[in-house]
Specification:
- The structure is a single chain.
- This protein is of the alpha+beta class.
- It has helices at 12-19, 33-38, 74-80, 86-93, 98-103, 106-112, 119-126, 139-142, 210-218, 243-261, and strands spanning 5-7, 24-27, 46-49, 59-62, 65-69, 129-132, 136-138, 157-162, 167-174, 181-190, 193-199, 207-208.
- It folds into 3 domains: 5-49, Uridine Diphospho-n-acetylenolpyruvylglucosamine Reductase, domain 2 (2-Layer Sandwich), CATH 3.30.43; 59-162, Uridine Diphospho-n-acetylenolpyruvylglucosamine Reductase, domain 3 (2-Layer Sandwich), CATH 3.30.465.10; 167-261, Enolase-like, domain 1 (2-Layer Sandwich), CATH 3.30.390.50.
- α3 (74-80) packs antiparallel against α4.
- The longest helix has 19 residues, at 243-261.
Length: 262
């Protein structure tokens, strides 16, 4: 690991100012950035920690749904979201191990947009809003491919607003060592229809399965997806599974998520 400076601002304004300097990098949970720095694949001159900013912490109900501060650890979401959005709380409680859940944050996960991360599926299936220091971004506009988002240089996520669905569930088939999703499916039913988001499967990162959404909006039951087929052409191929294997997992896990939500 290369030498670096470390600053821990107490306000969003201070963090934005610190990040305006050349070579500065935001640090939230650090579950991806720190291992990358240890391997010398990244060498920021300054780490700007966001974990000391009180206004970026916590879970509460507000306009538009459940508001979660971007610097809120997964373990806190698992505890405090349970009464309002059980499916989201369960997702948070299944990320990594206790150490990861107590250090990793919502904002860090979304800013990194790992193709196998769990949170992107919850955000996309919920039609959530990502709030930054300068604007709000709809979930459908935020995710732009593997490790790619709509965030600008120096822009930081401050909170996420989750509309609370009538029914929802998240089911993942995880890699036992990392507990990242080999494939994960989040299903959320709202008055206006059903949203289905898939993580861990596609080369393009998290995506919505529109065919399943249409079928489930007409009939919210596992049987509704039985006649559907997921295209495997853009699925990930690695030592854990072929594209066809992951495509089949998408269908199987969608059915399970609907059953769990119902």
């Amino acid at each position: 690991m290369h030498n670096f400076d470390f600053v821990k601002p107490s306000t969003i304004a201070e963090a934005v100012a610190a990040l305006s300097h050349e070579g500065a990098q935001a640090l939230s949970g650090g579950q991806t950035l720190i291992p990358t720095m240890k391997q010398r694949l990244a060498a920021p001159a300054t780490l700007v920690s966001l974990t000391g900013i009180a206004e970026m912490q916590g879970v509460c109900l507000g306009d538009g749904g459940l508001h979660i501060g971007a610097a809120t650890p997964h373990a806190t979401v698992a505890r405090e979201a349970k009464a309002h959005y059980p499916a989201l709380a369960k997702l948070a409680g299944g990320i990594g191990d206790p150490a990861v859940r107590n250090k990793g944050t919502v904002g860090g996960s979304l800013a990194n947009n790992d193709p196998a991360a769990c949170y992107p599926s919850a955000v996309l299936a919920s039609g959530a809003t990502i709030v930054t220091n300068t604007r709000t971004i709809a979930a459908d506009d935020y995710f732009q491919g593997m490790f790619t988002t709509a965030l600008h240089d120096g822009e930081i996520i401050t909170s996420v607003v989750f509309p609370i669905p009538e029914k929802a569930a998240y089911v993942k088939f995880d890699q036992p060592a990392s507990r990242f999703a080999l494939t994960g499916v989040f299903v959320a039913k709202y008055a206006g229809g059903v949203r289905v988001a898939v993580t861990g499967a596609s080369q393009d990162g998290v995506f919505r399965w529109h065919e399943a959404e249409a079928a489930l909006s007409a009939n919210f039951s596992p049987a509704a997806v039985s006649g559907l087929a997921m295209e495997s052409r853009h699925m990930i191929a690695d030592l854990h599974g072929t594209p066809a294997y992951r495509a089949n997992l998408v269908k199987v896990l969608t059915s399970r998520a609907v059953a769990a939500a119902g």
